[in-house]
Amino acid sequence: MSQIPLESINSITERIIGAAIEVHRGLGPGLLESVYEECLAYELGQSGLRFQRQLQVPIRYKDLSLPGSYRIDLFVENLVVVEIKAVEVVIPVHEAQILSYMKILDAPAGLLVNFTVPLLAKGA
What we know:
Blueprint: H1 6-27, H2 33-47, E1 51-61, E2 64-76, E3 80-85, H3 92-105, E4 109-114
Parallel strand pairs: 3-4
Antiparallel strand pairs: 1-2, 2-3
Helix pairs in contact: 1-2
């Protein structure tokens, strides 16, 4: 991936976080991940950010290709992987998951957003 200015990546992630906060304010915690994903996609669209939902990503291992092995919740501006959770506690495997997605897509940034918290700043 070509060098993207850090300021550009930070600007995009700030806009995504702002959209996630807006969704959390409107819905609160305790719903399904799919609901949060739908509403976050709406907010991202309203903000003018380009994104793909449920992006199917093939896994390649040596000469083996596993098409459609994984689906990434949101891939924003072809730079930022967004993984949405609605869990009581984010555990290390969730963090490993987003790091793997970033590696597979050669993405410079990723956000793990957990909507099941009283204050979203504690979940993002």
